[in-house]
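Could you help me review a protein record that somebody else here produced? My question to you is simply how this chain folds and whether the tokens agree. Thanks in advance; the entry in question is below:
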Amino acid sequence: MLQPKGRIETKLGELNIQLEAAPKPSGNYVPYIMVPPLIYLSGVTPKENGVLKYKGKIGQDLMKEEGYQAARQCIINQLGTLRSALGDLDRIVSIVKLEGFINAASDFHELPYVLNGASDLLVEVFGSAGVHARSAIGAASLPGGAAVEVELIVRYE
């Protein structure tokens, strides 16, 4: 028998977003740590089906719009991690903090635009509970040459 979909899973379906299982760590760490009522998520890159979809420097190898999509893909991956950790995305009370690392050319300064790809999707999925504090940080390089890496802190019940 099929389980009824929760509000958040229904919203993801409307957005044609299918979540994958939590990505496997590429080092000696875990994908998340639960410290009730918070869950701290390790950084993830914009992989799809285990393959890095956006690679290179924003403003050099990739346009800012591609960076936006890379940040969005990172959040889709984080939602998969949250579902694995919590079992039900409806348990999420609020997105507390988002930290985004952008592999940017030295003269690229539109970091907030790129990270809006993550922020916009969180608000679209969670409404006012998706509004969060955040930091957009330029980086000289990221794991595997990824364009973006995103960490989250989430409050759950």
About this structure: Strands lie at 32-35, 38-44, 47-48, 51-52, 92-103, 133-139, 148-156.
